[in-house]
Design goal:
This protein is mostly helical. The protein has 16 helices and no strands. The chain has 2 domains: about 180 residues, MFS general substrate transporter like domains (Growth Hormone, Chain: A, Up-down Bundle); about 190 residues, Up-down Bundle (Growth Hormone, Chain: A).
Length: about 400
């Protein structure tokens, strides 16, 4: 019996549902722990740090599983772990079960996300750049939808947030169980794979160097991007800019992504755009966006910075996994997609903590200057590596 090929439409629907469900949880985490559970902001930050560390481990594990084992039971099991954690949170959402179940959800989600990204590389009837652009678009539609709806749901009862998230994860699990199937890879001893020309080889050394350069720059960008989700809110309030105006920046972020991503897809379908030129153009926009924060003292300047950063995000973020997919061998697709996820999670894990230390001992301006400098150095280094290593 011929196995059906994986359809992009089901990956996109799953990404939309999972992202919507996740977006019900993350905006409330710090507020819920502080205002509802009466824990300190420091403790909330520690929980988020531990979650990010577990997500790093989950990303690596997901890539290893995809490359070496039958991914399906692990994929369904990891989604199931998130599903069960949300179900338990409906009834047990106090301290300390709330953060413990949150960690289970984060770990399971990281495994599932990496496996799904690896599955996306198997879709050959679309260009890899198009596939990852569309998945990024679907995920961000979910973020916009989830963060918009959660504001209405939480007004009635915080428990309803977990109910809705649980229902969404049930649908996600059913989609994965029914449609996320690709032919099983046969595990081959490494020695055999190295000598048999018909079997997939390891990723070439030159490609590994290019991937390392790209992911180093990606890590530096995520260090900066995490400041928008943490320390920027405090900074803006210190300048007399209200929290509601800070939240509007994320509305602007979502609108630009939802409008900009289809435009990028249209241009790529009708014009030949070099992926490396695209990603380095995105890096340049991030440098300009973070650099502009050095001088941002009023709300219009923060809007301008967010617009520039979001344009960089739209251009660079979907391109990075697509380039990594094109550089990695068939035998190591999961491994390198895992490294992409690890770079993002690592930036989110240490970014807020690093930013807090710099702010405490120096200033916000020094933080923005340092981040801009790091992105410049990493971006230039990545370009140099690509220039010398790419054939």
């Amino acid at each position: 019996m011929t196995q059906k090929r994986l359809k992009l439409s089901w990956l996109l629907l799953g990404s939309l549902i999972a992202s919507t469900g996740t977006s019900f949880i993350w905006p409330l985490t710090t507020v819920y722990m502080h205002d509802y559970l009466h824990q300190t902001l420091t403790l909330a930050g520690i929980v988020l740090f531990v979650e990010s560390v577990l997500m790093i481990g989950g990303s690596y594990l997901g890539g290893y599983i995809y490359d070496h084992f039958n991914y399906r039971p692990w994929l369904l099991g990891s989604i199931g772990a998130s599903l069960i954690s949300m179900f338990l949170l409906i009834f047990f959402n106090g301290w300390p079960l709330y953060p413990l179940l949150l960690l289970v959800n984060g770990f399971g989600g990281a495994i599932a996300n990496t496996i799904i990204n690896a599955l996306a590389t198997t879709i050959k009837h679309h260009d890899a750049a198009y596939v990852f652009n569309m998945m990024y678009f679907a995920a961000n539609c979910g973020v916009v939808l989830g963060t918009f709806i959660v504001g209405f749901v939480v007004k009635y009862n915080i428990r309803y947030v977990f109910v809705v998230t649980f229902i969404l994860f049930v649908f996600f699990w059913l989609i994965a169980q029914r449609h996320y199937r690709v032919p099983r890879k046969v595990a081959v001893p490494e020695k055999t794979a190295a000598t048999d020309p018909l079997l997939p080889k390891k990723t070439p050394v030159f490609a590994v160097w290019i991937v390392c350069g790209l992911l180093l720059a990606y890590l530096m960008i995520e260090l900066g991007y995490s400041q928008w989700q943490s320390n920027l809110a405090v900074y803006m309030q210190s300048l007399g800019i209200g929290l509601n105006k800070y939240s509007y920046l994320w509305t602007i972020n979502g609108i630009i992504i939802v409008i900009g991503q289809p435009l990028i897809n249209y241009l790529e379908l009708h014009f030949e755009i070099n992926g490396y030129h695209k990603v380095y153009g995105g890096f340049l926009l991030f440098i300009l966006g973070f650099g502009s924060l050095i001088f941002a003292k009023d709300y219009p300047h923060f809007i301008l910075s967010m617009v520039i950063v979001t344009l960089g995000e739209v251009i660079a973020f979907p391109t990075i996994p697509a380039l990594v997919a094109s550089l990695s061998s068939e035998a190591e697709k999961g491994k390198y997609q895992g490294f992409v996820s690890i770079s993002a999670s690592l930036g989110h894990a240490i970014g807020p903590l690093l930013g807090g230390v710099v702010i405490e001992f120096a200033s916000y301006e020094v933080l923005f200057e340092g981040l801009t400098f790091l992105i410049v150095i990493a971006g230039v280094l990545s370009m140099i590596i690509t220039w010398f290593k790419k054939i």
